[in-house]
Amino acid sequence: QLIACGGGGEPYTLQSRLDEAIPRVLAETNIPGVIVGVWQGRDPVYLRAFGVKDVQTRESMTTDLYMRIGSNTKAFVITGILQLVDQGLLGLDDPISKFVPTVPNGDNITIRHLAQMRSGLASYSDGDKILPLWYDDIYRQFSTEELLRGSFTQEKPIVFEPAAKYDYSNTNTVLLGVVLEQLS
């Protein structure tokens, strides 16, 4: 058990604090359900499910559910990219073509453009190459190459010039992931 002391010196478990706080936050935020885990090393010291996984059937969340992490990965990738910048291994104004030479307009698209969703590249998830395959098998794992090909072979792989505007493109983060892999 994780034990700590409160301001008055009284001991409490972090588990009991989480068990109290999480349902309260769910109610305040209208989130139907969540799985919360805390690990020390390889061992979970706290793993609980709260709320429901289906708001219509009211079926409870369980800790063995598989859930897509989805766009939460974008925060991890950008954090890694910024750590590389801090280490001097990468510049925000480096062109993506330095790392992935096959990117359309890659000499003009910078790491900064990709991170800000201002690259102008079409998202692989907007075209007709990837999404139909994913709908056929939602558990399918696409390779990086498949995702980039799905973007770069669209009818319009470049939607606008870099920095001209904002457009949420999953392709941006895939490319940043490639850079992260190459430099770390």
Characteristics:
globular, 6 helices, disordered N terminus, two-stranded antiparallel sheet, alpha+beta
Helix content: 25-40%
Mean pLDDT: 91
Order of helix and strand elements from N to C terminus: EEHEEHHHHH
Low-confidence parts:
1-5
**How large a portion of the residues is in β-strands, by DSSP E?**
5-15%
User: How many helix segments?
Assistant: 6
Specify the overall morphology. Answer: globular
- In terms of quaternary structure, the protein is single chain
Summarize this entry quickly:
The protein is 35% helix and 12% strand.
Model description:
Helix 2 (72-86) crosses helix 6 and helix 5 packs across helix 6 (170-183). The longest helix has 16 residues, at 14-29. The protein is of the alpha+beta class. Helices cover 35% and strands 12% of the residues. The strands form 2 sheets. The chain has a two-stranded antiparallel sheet. Strands 3-4 form a two-stranded antiparallel ribbon. The protein has 6 helices and 4 strands; from the N terminus they run ββαββααααα. A hairpin with a 2-residue loop joins strand 3 (33-40) and strand 4 (43-51).
What is the element layout, followed by pairings?
Layout: E1 3-5, E2 11-13, H1 14-29, E3 33-40, E4 43-51, H2 72-86, H3 111-115, H4 131-136, H5 144-152, H6 170-183
Antiparallel strand pairs: 1-2, 3-4
Helix pairs in contact: 2-6, 5-6
